[in-house]
DNA sequence: CAGTGGTCTAGACCACGTA
DNA sequence: ACGTGGTCTAGACCACTGT
């Protein structure tokens, strides 16, 4: 088998460590699971004609992303099973996109877009004064005529941010809209996940009988500098929705 | 206020970047949230009399762990709210320790320790042949006379690994035992979390009526090199157990 | 012993944001 | 223009592992 060895492009503007990283990923996917090649730093330095820094940065990111593991005085080795699909942590607000990728045809409905003072629990989580108003709305995602998830969203946003229901339905996520229009990125988040029995509004929101099981996900969203910027309570139909995430520690 | 500035110890064997990192964490906790000090690389280099590498490594880890954020051409800034307790992702098998830290008195009971061929679903997840045997057992954690969680665990382990129920109850985690005795560390994991209605064995395991809501957490455990090494299905009493995790992306 | 990754030094050039 | 973090070079010494 003839293997055309990839080389680096020093004029492309793409950092060397990213090119190295991508080449190694491609090679591992292509079947280096049969641990053929040695990924020692020295080998990569001589192979790509670079110094240690870009090699180490590439390997560092590969470790963080779970592609390889390193053992002191032993070497760097690819993890097994890179060909099988590994679950990625669900992106925030990326549920619509994910469902489409899965070949489903999700529909989003947004109700009750308004701006008012949130309930005490939410106000506390967002660290707001008793009179501060936030943008709020309800979003229901339906798949195959069945209501899959109902979310109540509270967003600390400038008064100028007054999206319509239509805009919120078309945008993949309200958070994306907020970033595009006002440069506010709510990239940090804290999730609380538990099971409960549907009752009252929760039951009605998903057309469930009282007492039926639901999955509740409460999320506090934070800006890069750690200030609360949003709060969301999502109710999922039991069994139909699974939260998936991986850890390397 | 007199501030005794911490200095580095080059003889302690502790890497400089770790010392720098810890000093910065302490200072931020002490109240640098009032963004008093500048954490630019140049400032830290001159302050600690080191080169750029340890400073960058310290800051890199602080970013990864959510203590600071960096903006190109602007600077490095502490995130707000470091004094309030942030949720840490629950350590695998660390539930007993966590409950004790919370001042509760959890009790663990282990039943049915044995070694046999697992059901098809588990065998598939673990990538085993039809005749491979694994160690299996059931573990129930009780708090205040109430069964909180019931786990069915399947462990790929050498035949010599034959812990007693007693040993498994006293060890914080079967995974710890496996690492201590055979050097097998199942550090990687993939979690699937959803809500369901208790029925059959699941209902009996937690003394619930049929149809009551439960939280199901299925976890595939992997070794550092990515080979499946264990599988666990945990059933949690609804409302009493919350899965908490944070993300910086 | 040689090879590995972990840590550190002392420089360099660049893109980008602020002033 | 200047300061910031992002990237890269070319060295160095160390601890640890396997032979």
Give a verbal description of the structure:
- The structure is a homodimer of 249-residue chains.
- The first copy, chain A, is of the alpha+beta class and 249 residues long.
- Chain A folds into 2 domains: 16-78, Arc Repressor Mutant, subunit A (Orthogonal Bundle); 95-237, 3-Layer(aba) Sandwich (Chorismate lyase), CATH 3.40.1410.
- Chain A is 29% helix and 29% strand.
- In chain A, the strands form 2 sheets. A 6-stranded antiparallel sheet of chain A has the order 3-4-5-8-7-6. The first copy, chain A, has a two-stranded antiparallel ribbon with strand order 1-2.
- In chain A, α1 packs across α3.
- At the A-B interface, β6, β7 and β9 of A face β6, β7 and β9 of B.
- β9 (243-247) of chain A pairs antiparallel with β6 (188-197) of chain B, so a sheet runs across the interface.
- The structure holds a DNA duplex (19 and 19 nucleotides).
């Amino acid at each position: 088998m003839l293997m055309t060895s990839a080389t680096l492009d020093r004029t492309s503007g793409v950092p060397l460590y990213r090119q190295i990283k991508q080449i190694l990923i491609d090679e591992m996917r292509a079947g280096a699971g049969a641990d053929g090649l040695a990924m020692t730093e020295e080998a990569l330095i001589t192979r790509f004609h670079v110094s240690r820094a870009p090699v180490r940065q590439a390997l560092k990111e590969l470790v963080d992303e779970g592609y390889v593991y390193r053992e002191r005085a032993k070497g760097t080795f690819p993890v097994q099973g890179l060909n099988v699909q590994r679950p990625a942590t669900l992106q925030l607000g990326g549920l619509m996109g994910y469902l489409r990728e899965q070949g489903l045809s999700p529909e989003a409905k947004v109700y009750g877009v308004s701006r008012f003072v949130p309930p005490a629990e939410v106000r506390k989580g967002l660290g707001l004064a008793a009179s501060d108003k936030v943008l709020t709305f309800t979003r229901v995602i339906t798949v195959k005529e069945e209501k899959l998830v109902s979310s109540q969203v509270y967003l600390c946003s400038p008064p100028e941010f007054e999206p319509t229901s239509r805009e919120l339905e078309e945008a993949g996520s309200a958070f994306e809209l907020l970033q595009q229009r006002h440069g506010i990125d709510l990239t940090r988040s804290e999730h609380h996940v538990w099971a409960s029995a549907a009752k009252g509004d929760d039951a009605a929101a998903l057309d469930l009988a009282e007492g039926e099981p639901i999955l509740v996900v409460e999320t506090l969203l934070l800006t890069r500098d750690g200030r609360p910027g949003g709060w969301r309570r999502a109710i999922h139909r039991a069994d139909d929705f699974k939260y998936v995430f991986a850890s390397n520690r």
